Amino acid sequence: MAAVAQNIKCSHCGAPVDFKPGEIVATCKYCGFTTVIQTGVAFTFEHSVLPNRFDLMQIEAPIKAWMQSGFLKPGDLAKKSKIKQKNLVYLPFWVVSVEAKTAYKGIFERITPVVVKEGKLEKEYNWLVLARKASDFPTREYQIPLEGKVPYDFRKIESFAKVLNSEVDRDSALELARTQIETHHRFLLQQDVDKIIDFRMELSLKQMVYLHTPVWFINYEYKGQTFQLLIDGATGNTIKGDIPSPKFGLL
Ligand SMILES: [Zn+2]
Fold first, then answer.
1. Contact 232, 142 (CB under 8 A)
2. For residue 240, how far is its CA from the centre of ligand 1 (angstroms)?
3. Would you list the domain boundaries of the chain?
4. Centroid of ligand 1 to alpha carbon of 158 (angstroms)
5. How far is the CA of 37 from the centre of ligand 1 (A)?
6. Half-sphere exposure (CA, 13 Å, Cβ side) for 193?
């Protein structure tokens, strides 16, 4: 059975605000007011949006450009493909701006005798955490132009677009960012040491912003099969695209 959408009243304009089970932060379609569902109180963090630059016709240009570029694609991809669906979705993210300092000790085994190395890794991040639980969205591959963000304005959201609510609260997002940054630092340290024996990471949080970003979910058909393409609505860049094998359809 499909999950039933519920609604609460927007505490700003009184309109019903729809949400689905699992969603934690919801934005009113009519006035743009953002509410924390469980408590019904206003959301006090900065809520931003990256403006989308394409309408339903204009988005075809970056789609065609992607199909025509790159030698891994079939030569007739742009010509033979049919665009089946063009859905603009505003995805919710938490942007966690932090300074991460890791002090580490490890064993360098690439020389004999092995040596123990100590060091520090200091980085600053605007770490993106997708505020949806079930998604295979490639967040780490998504390079968003953060400097283009503006305060969320419901009037700028296209009538055909869908705005997804957050399923991840602020504290959980911060925890997720911490875990992901730690994994990332352990990965970076592999260049310097082969075995980590001590690892301490300190995060100083600078800012957390709730951000909706425009992503075009494109379905196209090529030789009878459907493939997906994700395009960043702020830049027109491809986030991820399924490519039919060049020999596809010949077998
Ligand atoms: Zn409202």
1. yes
2. 34
3. 1-44, 45-241
4. 17
5. 13
6. 20
Q: What is the DSSP string of 4-32?
A: PPEEEE-TTT--EEEE-TT--EEE-TTT-
> In which residue are the tokens 């994700």 written?
230
Give the pLDDT confidence score for residue 189 in this predicted structure: 95
Residues of the chain with pLDDT under 50: 1, 250-251
Cα of 19 vs centre of ligand 1, distance in Å, is: 13
Residue 225 backbone class (left: φ over 0; alpha: ψ -120 to 50; beta: rest): beta
pLDDT digits (tens, 9 = 90+) for 139-168: 888 988 888 999 999 988 999 999 999 999
Two tokens, residue 55: 């309408």
Residue pLDDT, tens place only, 175-202 = 999 999 999 999 999 999 999 999 999 9
User: What's the Cα-to-Cα distance from 211 to each of 5, 45, 184, rounded to whole Å?
Assistant: 23, 10, 22
CA of 39 relative to ligand 1 center, distance in Å: 16
* CA 105–ligand 1 middle distance (angstroms): 53
The rounded Å distance from CA 93 to ligand 1 centre is: 21
pTM of the predicted model, to two decimals?
A: 0.85
Please state, in angstroms and rounded to a whole number, the distance separating the CA atoms of residues 192 and 118.
Answer: 9
180: three-class secondary structure by DSSP: helix
* Cis ω for the linkage preceding 92 (within 30 of 0): no
Give 147 Cα–ligand 1 centroid separation in angstroms. Answer: 27
